Every structure is written in C-alpha cells, then in structure tokens.
Sequence to fold (228 residues):
Amino acid sequence: KQEVTQIPAALSVPEGENLVLNCSFTDSAIYNLQWFRQDPGKGLTSLLLIQSSQREQTSGRLNASLDKSSGRSTLYIAASQPGDSATYLCAVRPDNYGQNFVFGPGTRLSVLP
Amino acid sequence: ETGVTQTPRHLVMGMTNKKSLKCEQHLGHNAMYWYKQSAKKPLELMFVYSLEERVENNSVPSRFSPECPNSSHLFLHLHTLQPEDSALYLCASSQDLTGGRETQYFGPGTRLLVL
Fold:
C-alpha cells in the first residue's frame, strides 16, 4: 500500500529565504506526482505536476524534483514571500489504474515579514 | 476562481439528519472526485466518477451515497452520520482519468460538523 510522508510538518522562515519541502513515498511504481497548496479553510490549488518519466518541473519561483527510484520529491521555493504561507501537500498517483492520488499529510509553511 | 464550486460551505447536522453536498464544475471535465480531509489525517479519496459512472469507491461507509447526474454535477448524500464524520469534504475534477492531463482542480470544500 502506497504511503506518503512529508517533512517537516511545519516550517517558519523569514521573508526572502530559499526553502525546501520534502516528500517521500514508499512504492516507486507511480504514474505521476503533484504538489498542491492549500490556504486555511480552502480547497487545494495545483502547483506542479511531474510525470514519472520527468526529473523536475519549474513554475516561477517554484521548482519540484522527482527521484522515483528513491521515492523522493522536493519542492524548492526561492525568495519566499509572506503570501507563500500555506500548507503544501504532495500527492502521488500509483501506476495501477483505478487508484487515484495518495496524499501526504502536508507541510504547514509560515513566511514571516 | 477555480471553476469548481461547492455548496454549502458550512453545514451542521445531527446524527439523524439527511443532507446533501453539491459540487459543480464549469471546466468541461469528464472526471469528478470526492475527498475527505480530517483534522489529523491526510486527504482521503472517497469516490471517483468518470463520464457519470462511478469507477472507484474507496471503502466508504454506506451512510455516504454519491450521485453524478451529469458530468458537471456531483452530489454526496449524507444520512445517519457519526461525529467522526466531521471533516472538510472536498470536490475535485480533472479532464480525464488517464493520459497525463490529470491535474485536479479543487473546490473550496464543505466544512461539516456532525453533532
């Protein structure tokens, strides 16, 4: 059974810092991996989707990497801003059709002005 | 604006009540999902619909009953719920289930409290 963990559970940084969020998954047989952002009391917003054949994806100040063989992904946020404060969720889709995304518990990020 | 709307945003119900959650997507997608997000657990997939047909029921108790009358609407009918069912219920949609076009778009959720 696929399990997804995220470290750290919470992170507080001053504005302007570069930071890395970590995601680990137990079964490397995945179809893709996706990073989401969730603001308090709201739904999820997709940030980056990495297919299993890809190593990384970039969008603006965000860069996500995928090392499928070791079961790891990282989300790098450059020059963090207070508006980046949110919970960041990692989700993997097993490559067994019929199973949808398995989510991690999330990392709660606070960027202090 | 995510293109996926959910109503109501907040709901308080007793254990003997019957209520329904509604989700509507304006994105022309073919797949829709219900998720449950509890305070101390990761997001859990409940149901998946593709082209109005249920393709996955993730061992959800029968007190939760989904309905997908067309590809734009998804309902979750609730009856005789338990306090532990209190959670944020999220609806999502995606273009399809396969083919790499799988970014899921989420609604804002319904915050449910069962007394």
Notes: The mean pLDDT of chain B is 90. Chain B has no helices and eleven strands. Chain B touches chain A at residues 2, 4, 6, 33, 41-45, 48, 55-56, 88, 90, 92, 97-98, 100, 102-109, 111 (CB under 8 Å).
